[in-house]
Amino acid sequence: MKKNIHVILKKTMPKLGQEGKAINVAPGYAFNYLIPNKIASLATKGILKHANMLAEIQNQKKEIIKIKATELQKQLREITKISIKKKTGDKQYIFGNISSKEITEKIFNYIGIKLDKKQIEAPEIKKIGIYIIKIHILDDIIANIKLQVLPTNI
């Protein structure tokens, strides 16, 4: 009997690998646990070809997403600063907060792209001034925008 057999994972397993990965395991482990629980399937030529094709399609999608993210980053870099007017009190403190929603609306007015408010990382804004806002487009692509808080003319 063979020492190891070749299987392809159908589910991501912490100690074995990611979904679609081809691994060698003991025959008993494959036939008694992985295959009956639909965690893996036997690796035939057709299944290996199919898994490689799916991995290639997934890589192409990731590349397209990354290209769109870099284009968005370029558009955001063109914005020098965003100005928001707020009512102020004593010592230049503003009334209320500046929310991520307000910032996304201002960015939408400039570039026409709606961002998710979860992408915006802003410091706590209590006073009039200039603040740096970080926008997380992807995990490794971040854009910085200046936010200027101005008092409204009463």
From TrEMBL:
One of its GO terms (biological process) is translation. Residues 17-44 form the Ribosomal protein L9 domain. GO terms for molecular function: rRNA binding; structural constituent of ribosome. Signal peptide: none annotated. GO terms for cellular component: chloroplast; ribonucleoprotein complex; ribosome. Pfam families: Ribosomal_L9_C, Ribosomal_L9_N. Its main location: plastid. It is found in: Plastid, Chloroplast. Keywords: Chloroplast, Plastid, Ribonucleoprotein, Ribosomal protein, RNA-binding, rRNA-binding. It comes from the Eukaryota. Binds to the 23S rRNA. Belongs to the bacterial ribosomal protein bL9 family. This is Large ribosomal subunit protein bL9c. The gene is rpl9.
